[in-house]
């Protein structure tokens, strides 16, 4: 493949799900897929013009990309780091454990963690990035991502993973709690707030349950939502007014919360 940002060698993508397919299309390089599901690897390869290789391949690749669930990324890095000649990177969604594993098992190679903050079908968008060890291969991959309309947001692993406690874990917990607690209402009774929450519930419940479960297993955040709900449920009118003002100070017109990023699980 040719063009600015082209990678001069094959990239092995470990994980043949939607995110693996996205990265195959988003980078300018010949790709090979491997997956615990060999049929999925072949299907992804056929869909993206790549090839499939066995999960336990000893073939070497210029770069290896881990596109596996975040709960499995550290083990996958340990397994597939020997396949990487020059670079290793991930798109799993959790950065601390991924970068720690890369540092342990691929310390002499280029290393970066990428987190697309959108579902693949909504690309392009913002991509959080931590460049642990840069180099020409990683630079070429990042250049292609930017050329294709993505905005690379430089961060640290601690900042990213801390933010995901709110952006993903707490947000999803709040929306799913509403979806579980809400009762059907007669047509015409909808308020603007109810309609917006209903739309968010449809958005979140249209995703993959295991992805949401992995997020809750990886990041804190749900407990804070539960604690806030208990405070509201037990508050008397004066206390509820105080809690309302506390929320307004954070989220009102003069508040500080302003993030509107969509995560990769938000369909």
Account of the protein in words:
- Helices cover 48% and strands 16% of the residues.
- By secondary structure, it is of the alpha/beta class.
- The chain has an eight-stranded mixed β-sheet, with helices on both faces.
- The C terminus is likely disordered.
- 39% of the residues are buried.
- It is elongated.
How many β strands by DSSP? 8
pLDDT < 50 runs, ≥5 residues: 259-265
Helix-and-strand structural type: alpha/beta
User: Mean pLDDT, as a whole number?
Assistant: 93
Helix content class: 40-55%
Number of helices: 10
Distance between the termini: 30 Å
- SS strand fraction: 15-25%
Main beta sheet strand tally, sense and closure: 8 strands, mixed
Estimated radius of gyration: 21 Å
Overall geometry: elongated
- Spatial strand sequence of the major β-sheet: 3-2-1-4-5-6-7-8
Instruction: Write the H/E string, N to C.
Output: EHEHEEHEHEEHEHHHHH
In terms of quaternary structure, the protein is: single chain
Any key phrases for this structure?
single chain; eight-stranded mixed beta sheet; 267 residues; 8 strands; elongated; alpha/beta; disordered C terminus
Summarize the structure.
The chain has 267 residues and is an alpha/beta fold. The chain has 10 helices and 8 strands.
Furnish the topology, listing elements before pairings:
Elements: E1 11-14, H1 18-26, E2 31-34, H2 38-48, E3 51-52, E4 61-66, H3 73-80, E5 84-90, H4 96-105, E6 110-116, E7 126-133, H5 136-147, E8 151-154, H6 157-181, H7 192-205, H8 209-218, H9 222-234, H10 237-251
Parallel strand pairs: 1-2, 1-4, 2-3, 4-5, 5-6, 7-8
Antiparallel strand pairs: 6-7
Helix pairs in contact: 1-2, 3-4, 6-7, 6-9
